Each structure stands twice: as structure tokens, then as C-alpha cells.
Amino acid sequence: MCGVSAMMGRGDKWWGAAVTVAVCCALFGMCDGDYEPKSILCDDVDAICAKNDFDVTNVTECGSNERKFLNPAICNCGLKCIENLKEGDSCLTSSLVDYPTKMCGPGLECKEDPSNPRSSRCIRNTDKKCINELMKYEEEQEVGTLGPGRNKPNCDEYGSYAPTQCSPSSTCYCVTPEGERVFGETLFSQEKVINCKCSLYWEDTEKKGLNLGMRCLPNGNFDSLQCIGTYCFCYNDTNDTVTYGPVPKYMIKFMPCYDKEIHFESYSNPCHSAQEAWNNQGIDADIIVAEVPQPVCSRDGYYAAVQYLAGKAYCADRNGNRIENYELPIHEAENMNCHCPRRRKIMEENGYGASKPKCCSDGQYYPWQTRGPHSYCVDDNGNQYGETVTITNIQDLPCYTNTPCSAK
Prior knowledge:
Number of strands: 18
Largest sheet: 3 strands, mixed
Distance between the termini: 56 Å
Number of helices: 7
Oligomer: single chain
């Protein structure tokens, strides 16, 4: 359980100092088969559960209206499928047994019923921002006032924003539980593929003050091919396991997860290669080329949306090419994110250029957008808020102004 192979299965922690078999034997007495708990750590879950007479049920799949539930006893011994209650169903706020028989389903909370203080029901908590927005969306949908640019909020089972949010007929992108944009975006048709696990992993990594970790794909998922130092391995982010390797980097193109369409034998993607070249200026010669900007890279090894040159910040595609003429003086570009031009680029590349959004010169979304005969206001992610009007009545929009981009 605590050898090198076990440590590899820990995903982002795999390269940590693995405990050797000898240390395991010395510290935990796990070599003779008669395990005696000597610490409060769950060093060997199966042995600890057996020691405490818990039946460890290995549930791999639950029904469509069920969820997996860990035993609250020591080391979460045992796993069962619990039925989800629907909105409005009666529920219990506490249980006298280890396992509840039923629980409020995802996005629901068991709250006291205002009409009957002695009972509780499963409800959606409107104090949660995502839940509140979702309920407004459903209300507009029911009465037929849902605008063409309104996105359906995607909430997790706790009422926070799910990692993936999608805008209608454009792109899906990654967010934090609070709904703040992070790295990762792809065409809306890839909604079932994007999971944003790598994007959120890096949010947590950077908050810890670290800058070394696993590489992402452009959509915010983990790259299945990972290299740390001179070794590479194949990684499955569905079950957080190493599926092949590690092997020396020179064998990279023979690995089952190596895809010549997206990977390079050097493992260094375009921006990382440019960054390395920039860092090595002057090493082999005393001449440094002037006006060569330091590239800014994303977590996928490609270029970040905002790049810098000659006192300007400008919007770039993932290969570092300037996107049209979206730019600002560097001293005015502190909040520049280029979300709008990047969306335009993704849509153009995939044949949806006719419905691409309109952007201001600083890379922000134009405060109102149009789709067919309709006009509506949009937020910083290009999603509609407020009412929809016909183009002929565009001046009725609260976001309308004669100087739209200068007002942003």
C-alpha cells in the first residue's frame, strides 16, 4: 500500500518521496500479515476495516437515482449506494444509523419546512449564487422569455458552480466553485469531454505558492501524457492513476498515450520551446536580440491569451499569433483577459464564424450582442443578462451607450 506504485496512483502527489517497503515494515508492521494499528492514520484501509469488523463493500457503479456514500466510521470503511430524494420530498436532518437509507439529491439540502416546523424537506438553497441563477433560468424558460444568449448555470451537488460552464452555441470554459474564470476553453460541442480538472488543480497548486506540476490540455483537462524531469508516464484522470510508465523521456513516442497530432517528441509545446529559447539568450553568444518579447505560456505549454510587445499588450491565439487588432498600452492592460477574441478564434477555426461575438479593441466583450433579429446585454463571459429586444429597439437595452467600449 505504501510502495512506489501506490504513490504513483495519487495523481499530482506521485512524485513525492515514496515510502520504501523497508520503512513500511519498520514503522507499521505490515510485513507479517498480522496488522495491528499503531497510529490514527489510515495506512492500510482493508486491514483496519477488517480489524474493526467492518464489511468493505466495493461498489463501483450506482443507479441513475443513487449516489455513493462512505461509511462515516473509522477510515470510511465500506461503500454503499444511497437513493437520492427529489425536491420537495421529506427528509431527515440526522440519522441514528451509520448509513442513511435516503438522502437529498445533488443540489438539494434538507431544511425545515416553514409550513410545518416539525418536518423537513429537500429544497434548493437560493442563497447559493449558482442555484439562484439556475432557478431564474428555469423560470424564464417556463414562461418563454429565455433569451438566445442565456447560459444555463451548471451547479454541483453542493450548490457551487461546477467546473465546466457553457455559453449557447459558442464555447465551454472552466471556472472555480465561485464562478470565476480560469484557464481552459473549447467549442460548445465538446461539452461532454471537458472536465477542467487540470485547471482547478493548478488553481490549488498556485495558491500553495508552487509552480511545478502536471500539464494541461487547452480545454483544461489533464494531458494523458505527463513528463517530470527525464521520465514520462501515461495518466488517467478519471480514476487518478498512472496507466503506463514511468519510462525515460527518449522513449516518449513509443508510449501508448503519445499522440503525434498533439504531442512533440521533446514534450515541449510551442510556447515552452520559445520560453526556453528566450531564457537561453546570450548563453552561447554575447549578443541578445533586441525587441524579442518574453513569451507568456498557459498550463498547456501553448501561448497565453495576452502577450506583450513594444509597450503593448495584445490578444494572441494558442500559437502566439496576434488575433486581429485587439491591444492596449501595457500600463492600461492590468485587467485584460482577451476572452472575447479567443472565443472568436475558436469559433472561426470550427466553422462557426458567422455567429462569433463582437469584441472591443481591448479584448472585452462588446456590452451588447446580437443573434438574428435579437439584441441583449452580456457579462464579462459573453453570457446574456436581462431582457431581449429586437435590433430596432436596441437603444432600450440598459447596457446601450453611444461609447460602448470606452465605458467598459
